[in-house]
Design brief:
With 136 residues, the chain is α+β, with helices and mostly antiparallel strands. The chain is 26% helix and 27% strand. It has a four-stranded antiparallel β-sheet with strand order 4-3-1-6, with no helix packed on it. It has a three-stranded antiparallel β-sheet with strand order 2-5-7, with no helix packed on it.
Amino acid sequence: MPKLSDTMTEGTLVAWKKKKGDQISAGEVLAEIETDKATMEWESPEDGTLTEIYVGEGGKVNVGDKIAFIGGEGEEAPKEEEEKAEEQKEEKPEAEEKKEKEEEKAKPKKEEEKKEPETKRTKTGEAENGNGRRKS
């Protein structure tokens, strides 16, 4: 994702103006990107073929993340990049799910800590808490 303004930290890919497999020249408009301030056209930085699109229309992306691959003649996008991108997408929900489970496990422990020890009656009828101390 190119940085299209000084304050931009992420952008939304509004529309692709080219499609996978298209021949492009430097300066041609590839996509429209919505920044924190405006929707701007993104121009190709080089000549080549748009061999891969990593982010679909409507996708939000951090500045610096890959959104497309422009290859030279006969060059294709590296397979590793595609696999890593897919793995990262799959790992996020698992990590979030794991975090939620850990939070659920922690909740009952916190509630148990807050409970006062049960009161017991001794043979003489005096009330004691769980620590063996008399309760007043």
